[in-house]
Amino acid sequence: MAALAPASPARPSKRSRSLRQAIGYGLLYVFLTILAVIFLFPFYSMVVGSLMSKEELFRSYPQLWPPNGPQFTAYRLLLQIATPEEVAASGLQNINNYNFVRYIFNTLLIASVAVALQVFFNTLAGYTFAKRNFPFKNQLFSVILATLLLPAAINFVPFYLLVAGTFGWKDTYWPFWIPSLATAFGIFLMRQFIASTIPDELIDSATIDGASQFQIVTRIVMPIMAGGMVVLGILTFVAVYNEYILTNLIISKPDLRTVQLFLANFKQATIRAPLYDLLFAGSVMATIPLLILFFVFQRKLVEGVMSGAIKG
């Protein structure tokens, strides 16, 4: 009599697998929601604080919403559209000496020009290291990467002596643009993107068709590398927009100040009687350009990061 084959273990039904998968996704979404609340709560507190009066801010218990409703006095004071009564009540009679809109414009100008220059020249340098051959290419690239290991603080004194003394760029925006036309990180990032995205056959075909190297970069490489250029541009914009130490070293004229320098100086000037409602309002308005930048280029940013991650 033939032996009976052992019964195979029962497989979980499709319904049970779907249920476990739904529970797993549900727990994941709950965890991500908690993380999002933790990360967004400081920004929410800043926004709510900017809509409160000084008396409401200094209550003994935290407020999740303005008790007397949102008040936009701090924003009107910074934008210089407040009434004389609001200026008098703020206790800051020289508020009109602070041109907040001008500071925002100065910061956007510095960051925008820096982005345009760095993206262009870093792409040129990255293409050269990725697709061109010249003596000591690898050694030079290693030296450039080695500069990333140097602490930024050791450059402050020689940088100031060079740009303020030798070139006479004190109280100008040139130190934000010229010395950083091509950065070590930017060259490395664009080299990696180009090396993993642009095939050599495409470069060879363009060369055979008579295109110069500059035409290859501007007409072939840059359109294909739009995602990588957006990644570099956003990183550069955020870094320059939030720059404080270099700005504090170079800029002393009030009409050339950036928004970060204004917020720091304003906090120091009112340290005996902190005007946190104005500081919160200024911080909120200073954050808005970064949020707009992210939402406008969100898709390109994700595409650029994923392109480098998959092909690199």
From TrEMBL:
Pfam families: BPD_transp_1. PROSITE patterns: ABC_TM1. The keyword Transport applies. Residues 104-297 form the ABC transmembrane type-1 domain. It is found in: Cell membrane. The keyword Iron-sulfur does not apply. Its main location: membrane. GO terms for cellular component: plasma membrane. The chain crosses the membrane at residues 22-44, 103-128, 140-161, 173-190, 220-241, 278-297. SUPFAM superfamilies: MetI-like. One of its GO terms (biological process) is transmembrane transport. Belongs to the binding-protein-dependent transport system permease family. This is ABC transmembrane type-1 domain-containing protein. It comes from Candidatus Thermofonsia Clade 3 bacterium. The lineage of its organism: Bacteria, Bacillati, Chloroflexota, Candidatus Thermofontia, Candidatus Thermofonsia Clade 3.
